[in-house]
Structure formats: C-alpha cells, structure tokens
Amino acid sequence: MSKVLVLNASYEPLNITNWRRAVVLLIKGKAEQVEHNGKYVYPEFPIPTVIRLRHYIRVPYKEIPLTRRNILYRDGNSCQYCGYTGDELTLDHVMPRSRHGSDSWENIVTACVRCNIKKGNRTPKEANMILRHQPRKPYSSLHFEVAKYVNGGSHQEWQKYVIGI
Ligand SMILES: [Zn+2]
Asked: pTM of the prediction?
C-alpha cells in the first residue's frame, strides 16, 4: 500500500510511514498535507504521499552499517569502473588493503570480477581505470530508504524533498 514521506517542520525528510498513520497525524492536526496522490480515502480527503509535521522534532543521527549489501546498494549494483550490472560483483578497495587502504565508505566500491582482477594491487590512477562516482558516505539511512523507492520507480514526488538522489 501507499507509503508516505514525513517531513520535519523544517522540511527535512524525517521518515517513511504508511498512509493510515499519516492520515491519523493529519486528522489530529499534528501534520499538514504537502502532496497527495489524487486517490480518496474519504470524500475530500486524498491519500497523502508527503506530509509535514507542525512541530520540529529532534532526531539523533543513525549510522548506516558498512556492509557489502549497503555498498552494492549505494553503487546501484553496478561496477564503478565499467558499469557492469549482474551477479558477479565484488568489493574493491580503491586504495588496496595491502597498501593500508581503509575499510570505509570512501575507500570501498562495487567492482565486477574482471575489473577487480585487472586493477589488482593498484590505485585507479595507476591502473588507468576511472571511477564513475567518487565513493562517499550516504547522507542518512532515510536517504537510503527514499532513494530505494525513487530509483525503483515509485514515489517520484519525493525526489524534490531529498537532496542528492
Ligand atoms: Zn567492471
């Protein structure tokens, strides 16, 4: 069923909820409707797709775990050197581990087996292999979630509320 992007009073994205909870927040006057999908739950009450809280709430920053799955996801499941998408993806240390390259968002990218072998123990520059995107840490776990929906073809209207998707 339809999901709803919840914005803080400051318009920063806060979380994703289901439309029923969003409707409750609207009815209780705790949030206002920003976007809706044109479908109606009750007469004159369209299903929201973006709502905004009336009062600002503070949220602690949540770390995104550095896992293989999350790195593949950040990189759109594609080799960051040749663009290959498929099953045979590996993780490559941009600065090789043998040369004290760190395990970090900035130093690990998705690479296909071929590129990983070709690059070997070299930096991209030494191997003359250009990275398609400079690897970086994702903004937030919510960012990650929102990108999943937007890139998956649903909730395009969320895009303008989230930077960098
Ligand atoms: Zn490749």
From this structure: 0.67
